[in-house]
Amino acid sequence: MRKKKFVSGETHRINLNTKNTMKFFKTIFTLFFVTILSSCNHAQNEHTNAQHLILFQDENGNYSLKDQAGNVVVTENKALGEVSINEFHEGLAVLKMNGKVGFIDSTGKLVIPLKFKAAASFSDGLAMFRIDGKRGYIDKSGNVVIKPEYDFTAGFSENLARVAIAEKWGFIDKTGKIVVKLDFDFANDFSDGLALVQMKEKFGFIDKTGKVVIPLGKYEDLESFSDGMAVFKINDKIGFIDKRGTVIIQPKYDFALCFTEGYSSVELNGRQGLIDKTGAEIIPLKYQSVTNFYNGKATVILEDKWGIIDPTGKEIIPLKYEQIESISDGIVPVKLNGKWGVVNDKGAEIVPFKYDYIQSFSEGIAAAQLNGKYGFIDTTGKVLIPFKYDWCHDFINGKAKVELNGRKYSIDLNGKKIADF
Q1: Contacts of 110 (CB under 8 A, 6+ apart)
Q2: Distance, CA of 108 to CA of 99 (rounded, Å)
Q3: Most C-beta atoms within 10 A of its C-beta, which of 10, 201, 321, 418?
Q4: By three-state DSSP, how is residue 37 classified?
């Protein structure tokens, strides 16, 4: 498999020579892919109340969850090996303390007791939980809606969830009714009204009644539908079908990404470009690497130089950089002559090129490295938290993980320590 040169993030690209359990022929490439930013920013914007909750450990090793005024809202009177608060979804967040899991609301109130072995975030009003090795679903009051009888469950997608017993997969609705029998060796979530399923070594698509709409075994490999199109492979070449199974783009490519914003990044003979849903090459296959478009922008590499283009192929950020991070709020960290700075989405320099590294901005702040130490800067380059850490992660919901002298802990936006981890 040829190595890709993007190194700032991750995405999936179809690889003809690699198969996973579902034979989805996905290969993870270390490349910048700004779609990840969309989901991250959505979570951060939707659940900003999470930053008002502080995990506190006293001198006896006991943990409490406090609000911004310092009031204890949840406490656990013993030293804990692992404590975590997940992102808020639908007003609630998973809280794990002392190996038990429950849910808190945005004020920190424990609304579902710490009684589960594991649980997932709420989706469409229901959350998966695990107890005694089996999985089921609860509602926001903590009531068991679907009893724990499954070996595997997934979140609800298009009002159905895939579940498995003894490695046989099917789908249930929100009442727990089995709407597609657990007959398949594997199943993927529903997307665009269809679900990719596997029987032995054959793959196809079913509708929400379980009816096979694209026969199993017709294609060597398939990918779930995205933007109304699905990738397929036949005779070691990749093309695209529509939801009726009609071949829209003939199989001729070596690699492909799923369609997003009406376009797909494809590769042929070691060069990449972008096609539309008719198969027309709107961006010529001349680049070493090309991401899909996100908000009308795609990152490209040509002759080892990085840049960003629009759907016409115009260079928004010129192809002159050694590396590019993800765009956030119209600004992006870039590397030039061995040093990192920041430019806006018109290519104008807004933070000078003097840093060893700058991460993508999150909540208007970016982790950066200078002279071997990490700190945090704002979008003008102003130092918000001094460069003293040996390692750090970006801010999420007002908290960032850092390491100093071998000790790892979380800090707030003022650089104040709030919890060990």
Answers
A1: 73, 74, 95, 102, 103, 104
A2: 19
A3: 321
A4: helix
Residues 6+ apart with CB under 8 A from 254: 16, 237, 238, 267, 268, 269, 270
Distance CA 355, CA 340 (A): 5
Q: How far apart are CA 33 and CA 311, in angstroms?
A: 16
pLDDT band at 68 (very low <50, low <70, confident <90, very high): low
Sign of CA dihedral 67, 69, 75, 78: positive
Structure tokens belonging to residue 54: 């502080």
Please calculate the CA angle 282-276-346 and round it to the nearest 5 degrees.
Answer: 55
Q: What kind and span of H or E run contains 40? A: helix 35-46
Please choose, from the candidates 244, 235, 182, 234, the residue with its C-alpha nearest in 3D space to the C-alpha of residue 207. 244
pLDDT for 75 beyond 90 = no
pLDDT, tens digit (0-9, with 9 covering 90-100), for 224-245: 999 999 999 999 999 999 999 9
User: What is the location of CATH 2.40.10 in the chain?
Assistant: 328-421
**Single pTM value for the model:** 0.72
Residue linked to tokens 């707030």: 412
CATH number of the domain at 328-421, out of 3.40.50, 2.40.160, 2.40.10, 2.40.50? Answer: 2.40.10
197 contacts 219 by C-beta, under 8 angstroms = no
pLDDT, one tens digit per residue, over 256-305 is: 999 999 999 999 999 999 999 999 999 999 999 999 999 999 999 999 99
Q: Report d(CA 66, CA 273) in Å as an integer.
A: 51
